Input
Amino acid sequence: MKAIIPAAGHGTRFSPYTKLVPKELLPIGSRPAIDLIVREAAEAGADEIVIVTSREKPLIERWFEIEPPPAKVRFVHQEEQRGLGHAVLQARLDDTALVLLGDALVSGGNASKAMAELSAANGGASVIGLEEVPSEKVSRYGIVKLDGTRIVDMVEKPKVEEAPSRLAVAGRYLLDPAIFGYLADQGAGVGGEIQLTDAIRRMLAEKPVLGYVYPGRRHDIGNPAGYFKALEAFNGIRKD
Ligand code: G1P
Output
């Protein structure tokens, strides 16, 4: 298993600070947020971590020169911002891909590790990390329809009346390598972007994809309010 961390976004919701420092380098204690995410991936069993970043954010690469990571880390640059699906495709792998969004910190245990264990116990099935959200927020997320533990449908940023549930895709994915074939010819979806959700939806027909409501909370550090909540959640957990 390898990991992909999409981290090429402009950080507009945290501007103007992010004109200077990428949001992925916001400190959680004395370490940047992306360092926690790399450690989560390594502890979950990823032996290589591909960070998808942009040439405008060289400080992320600099950090891992200063503090060597616990697993091999390499960087690919996303030249155009064409959506999450496009970002993940830049890291195209032949291996199972653990995708960890670079602006999503998950508290309450290692969700990626639990997902890797669930996948192993189910013949290597793909697993999507989920979190229940209030109805008024479903239009911000990918929303899934479950049949037991299996995802049978999913839709990116649905209107509340069209949402199949209140279970949102929540920043962590463990994906069969077939996903890269679907991403390669995925057309633009909502917002004119190549959506990872749309490619997974096509994969559902051919490969089992399980939903896993992880016990912890997702913290979106891409905006100041979410970042402050992440600091509260991680306060005392990491003192190093
Ligand atoms: C992305 C995904 C969406 C997911 C969300 C949170 O959306 O496209 O399916 O629910 O992350 O993990 P974004 O926040 O980039 O708009």
About this structure: Residues 33-44 form the longest helix (12 residues). The chain has a mean pLDDT of 96. DSSP finds seven helices and 13 strands in the chain. Residues 51 and 89 are 12 Å apart (CA to CA).
